[in-house]
Amino acid sequence: MPVTVLTGYLGAGKTTLLNRILSEQHGKRYAVVVNEFGEIGIDNDLVVGADEEVFEMNNGCICCTVRGDLIRILSGLLKRRKGFDGIIIETTGLADPGPVAQTFFVDDDLQRHTRLDAVIAVVDAKHLPQQLETSPEAAEQVGFADVILLNKTDLVSSEELERLEHRIRGINIHTRILRTQQCQTPLEDVLDVGAFDFDRIMTLEPDFLDAHHHHHHHHEHDDAITSLSLETEHPVHGPRFDTWMSALLQVQGPDILRCKGILNVDGLNQRYVFQSVHMLAQGTTTQPWREGETRHSRLVFIGRNLDTEALREGFNDCILEPA
After folding, report:
1. b or e along 130-143 (b: 16 or more beta carbons within 10 Å of the residue's beta carbon)?
2. Nearest alpha carbon to residue 172 among 128, 116, 130, 134
3. Above 70 in pLDDT, residue 47?
4. I want to staple 263 with a disulfide (CB 3.0 to 4.6 A). Which of 190, 229, 284, 297 is the partner?
5. What is the mean pLDDT of residues 30-35?
6. Is the pLDDT of residue 90 over 90?
């Protein structure tokens, strides 16, 4: 079951998005988990019946509150008779989405029955530039996000939007940016998006990268969050990759917000999808490579103080050169 983690500053528009999910007749059943019912204005007219923690909505979705143990709530949801099309977890305004995302790598039960589909961040186009200057959490939310709803775009000029998107890409090269007003975007852009959209991870505009390198260096802070993308067309040695990656995450995990990749592992006919959140990692084989398709491998790191050279060297050591 796909799980979406929803982050964003207070006031950016998360509540608007949640109320849409809980009220629109989209014909799907979502379980929406909110950290504190009080903090989010769920429109009471939408609520049908409620037991203590779980509120049924009149569009078939349910909403529940977490005042403590997320794993307990999620296990309970997975056991409910009527299944769901997905689970959405809202994190409080300033929280680091890391621990919530990590939950899905830690608990065996959740690992079996759920997959982390995407981390979504709702950001406020007018206030984000200021928040990025003053708050490490804002940059962290941008760094974590697979999809960013750049909301309230009507409050800034199109030049400002261009600049802001460039800035976001400097932090997180792979995120998908959706420009919105009042979070108006089709829900399928946000839910069950399969953030490991292969085509997206595989197509990076090289000119963007160059522009960003020349443009940013003079005013980058030491602890700024940046991303690095590595790729190869040769097969990757599986055991060597695992060894390198686990050593790397043990040492640098706190600084590496996320790592994700699709690898062509030597001797494996399926794609190997890898992702990590801080120290915790998960690798799974997914669909087979298509006949005649170029088997690219690409690995993306998003984090603080990334040692580009060392990472590139480590990855190169895992590549099997053609004989």
Report:
1. ebbeeebbbbbbbb
2. 128
3. no
4. 297
5. 84
6. no
Which tokens sit at 116?
Answer: 């982390």
Task: Record the tokens describing residue 185, joined without a space.
Answer: 């975007």
Which residues touch 81 (CB under 8 Å, ≥6 apart)?
none
Name the amino acid, one letter, at 97. P
- 279: exposed, middle or buried (Cβ count in 10 Å: 0-12, 13-18, 19+): middle
Determine how β-strand 86-90 pairs with β-strand 115-124: unpaired
CA angle 169, 90, 175 (to 5 degrees): 15
Contact call for residues 13 and 128 (beta carbons, < 8 A): no
Residues 278/233, Cβ–Cβ less than 8 Å: no
Q: Do strands 270-277 and 256-263 pair parallel, antiparallel, or not at all (unpaired)?
A: antiparallel
Q: Is 297 helix (H, G, I), strand (E, B) or coil?
A: strand
pLDDT tier at 302, thresholds 50, 70, 90: very high
- Say what the pLDDT of residue 61 is: 80
- Closest C-alpha to 297, from 202, 226, 166: 202
Residue 127 is classified by DSSP as T
Two tokens, residue 86: 């997905």
Is the per-residue pLDDT at 214 higher than 50?
no
DSSP characters over 26-80: -S--EEEEES-GGGS---GGGEEEE-SSEEEETTS-EEEE-SS-HHHHHHHHHHS
CB neighbours (10 Å) of residue 84?
19
Helices (H) and strands (E) in the chain, counts: 11, 14
For residues 201 and 215, give the distance between their C-alpha atoms in angstroms, rounded to a whole number. Answer: 23
Q: What are phi and psi of 163, to 5 degrees?
A: -60, -40
Query: What's the one-letter identity of residue 245?
Result: M
Tell me how far apart the alpha carbons of residues 18 and 15 are, in angstroms, rounded to a whole number: 5
